[in-house]
Specification:
alpha/beta; Rossmann fold; five-stranded parallel β-sheet; three-stranded antiparallel β-sheet; globular
């Protein structure tokens, strides 16, 4: 029997345990360890495998698991870094669903995500509190109460990330890895629905206290669609190494390259024809020709050339940018629409959500 395609499934453990078709991206773990960034942010478009890669890294390092069977036969096992499997505590959060029409809705979902991770560690730490500082225990359970209380204010949990890293390090005597998937979704939501000014200071402090100068943190990796700016709401967070679509680092690990697409389609009895390339190609990430995995997987399953990606996420930023575009933008757009090349200038020190310019990345 052929392996099923993991359409809509972005959990590494589920994909490996249930024998779904998997394109090996595990050498990303090697690069993460080699580069030794204290805080790294990888910015990629929607549906490019960010969550799957983050759960892969989580499952590799998580000290509470035994992951050898999950990674059996994958590339990372043939490297010197395989011995670091299950060697570190991991704090894993995904904010991809933390969005709301109002700030209260958004913060309620944000608290729920934090609450679930606190509860996971409460179960882990329950039998070892006697070895920890009693004040840390008190603060830990107080934060659980705050996150559980729907009436608590965001000021009360602004240090929730840093506090959790402190407790985890105290328990394991090893600083944790912090993984935050879709870190910018709540910020995008606040921008789209008009409460950005109300929440900007919170996010500056929320990320700043956890990621800058945190002695309880080993490494942090964030993914999202927007880069962190050096100023504005992220004035406290000026230490991340940022990897965008123009960087070679991490370029092979998000999306599918031509060889990977050809192998996948061949497995499904299809070919990588010029029509398929014309429909789904169009990304150059770090100089590598890449395809959107969501579109390719859906085409591989259905065998029909359709616009699978178009309804898979909100297009608010694109619509906003195009409605505010100047003449230079439309001149370049017309060139691209006619099949020609266009050279554009980009401002790399800010993001569109913080500086509404067609030249922001």
């Amino acid at each position: 029997m052929k392996k099923a395609l993991p359409i809509g499934n972005d959990d590494f453990t589920e994909i490996r345990e249930n024998c779904f078709y998997y394109v090996d991206k595990t050498l990303m773990i090697r690069d993460f360890l080699r580069m030794k960034d204290k805080v790294a942010l990888i910015a990629r478009p929607r549906r490019f495998g960010k969550t799957l890669n983050m759960t892969m890294i989580r499952d590799f390092f998580d000290i509470t698991k035994e992951s050898e069977s999950l990674f059996s036969g994958l590339a990372i096992m043939d490297t010197e870094y395989a011995e670091q499997m299950n060697s570190r505590p991991v704090i894993f959060l995904t904010f991809k669903d933390c969005k709301g029409i109002t700030s209260r809705e958004m913060f309620s979902l944000l608290k729920k995500e934090l609450y679930n991770e606190y509860l996971r560690y409460e179960e882990i730490l329950r039998n070892s509190w006697d070895t920890l500082n009693p004040y840390k225990k008190q603060d830990f359970y107080q934060m659980i109460d705050i996150l559980r209380d729907d009436t608590s204010t965001y000021i009360q949990f602004v240090t929730a990330l840093k506090d959790l890293t402190s407790v985890v390090k105290s328990h394991y005597k090893v600083a944790p890895i912090l993984l935050i998937d879709e870190y910018d979704q709540p910020i995008m939501s606040s921008y789209e629905y008009g409460y950005h000014g109300e929440t900007a200071t919170f996010f500056a402090n929320f990320y700043g206290t956890a990621l800058k100068g945190n002695p309880f943190l080993e490494q942090a990796l964030l993914t999202g669609i927007q880069r962190v700016a050096k100023e504005s709401i992220f004035s406290q967070l000026n230490n991340p190494q940022i990897y965008t679509v123009i960087d070679q680092d991490y370029a092979p690990y998000f999306g599918l390259n031509t060889e990977e697409v050809s192998e996948l389609l061949d497995y499904c009895g299809l070919e990588l024809t010029e029509e398929v390339k014309k429909m789904y190609d169009g990304y150059h990430i770090g100089g590598i020709e890449m395809y959107n995995p969501w579109s390719i997987l859906n085409y591989a399953k259905r065998g029909r050339l359709e616009n699978y990606w178009i309804k898979s996420s909100t297009n608010f930023l694109i619509r906003k940018a195009m409605s505010d575009a100047d003449k230079n933008f439309w001149d370049s757009f017309d060139l691209l629409a006619n099949g020609s090349e266009a050279t554009v200038w980009l401002t790399l020190d800010t993001s569109y959500i913080e500086r509404e310019s067609n030249y922001s990345l």
